[in-house]
Amino acid sequence: MKSYLKTFATETEATGWMRMRNQACRLAGNTKEKYAVCEGPDGGFAVVDIVTAIDMGNGYTIEF
Asked: Given a cut of 70, is residue 43 above it in pLDDT?
């Protein structure tokens, strides 16, 4: 899986984007791709692929 990163100013925006990405993957039958929200640059939030979230070693949130 390729690394994924998209940044947002608020946690609400990031969570909405993550839910949309996870739902789209699930509906497409793609069980390998999962996305999570974690702390991003400049005090914001980031949506990253689950492997990146785990590799970062920080806390993260994931919802389907």
From this structure: yes
DSSP state of 61: B
Cβ neighbour number for residue 23 with a 10 Å cutoff: 12
The residue to which tokens 């993260």 are assigned = 60
Radius of gyration of the chain (CA): 11
pTM of the model: 0.84
Helix (H, G, I), strand (E, B) or coil at 38: strand
The residue length of the chain stands at: 64
Nearest to 22 by CA among 4, 10, 40, 9: 4
